[in-house]
Amino acid sequence: MNHIISKDPICGMSVEKDSKFFLDDCHRKILFCSKPCLDQYLKRAPKNVDPVCGMRVENSSPYTLEKSGHKLFFCSVDCRAVYQRRQDPEHQSKCIDL
Ligand SMILES: [Zn+2]
Ligand SMILES: [Zn+2]
Question: Which of 47, 37, 77, 86 is nearest to 25 (CA)?
């Protein structure tokens, strides 16, 4: 079952579970009290998407990887490890340490 965040991350209000304003963020569901809050969140939301779990990841995430010139962002060290194992089975020991 998805984890539900019932506190509007923009205004801090508690939101009813059946709110029409929500966002599915892979394994989380984020609820909003109103459309303006949802819009504001989308404007601010990080554009980096964890290629393993599909979650949005902040630019400040410490879990990144350089891949052919661009930077990948991960939500956790586990997702990064999964990605590395999938992409690069024989170069695992060469992981980039930041
Ligand atoms: Zn709100
Ligand atoms: Zn992840």
Answer: 47
Instruction: Say how many Å lie between the CA of residue 58 and the centre of ligand 1.
Output: 21
- Looking at the structure, do residues 68 and 88 belong to the same domain, yes or no? yes
List the domain range (segments joined by +) for residue 10.
1-44
Low-confidence residues of the chain: pLDDT under 50:
92, 98
Kindly state the tokens that stand for 66: 């350089």
Nearest ligand to the C-alpha atom of residue 54: 2
CA of 64 to the centre of ligand 2 (A): 11
Check whether residue 53 and residue 27 sit in a common domain: no
pTM: 0.54
**Which ligand has the shortest distance to the CA of 7?**
1
Q: Is 62 in the same domain as 89?
A: yes
Number of domains in the chain: 2
Same domain as 96, residue 56 = yes
Ligand 2 geometric centre to CA of 54 (Å): 6
CA of 27 to the centre of ligand 1 (A): 21
Tell the burial category of 22 from Cβ atoms under 10 Å away from its Cβ (0-12, 13-18, 19+): middle
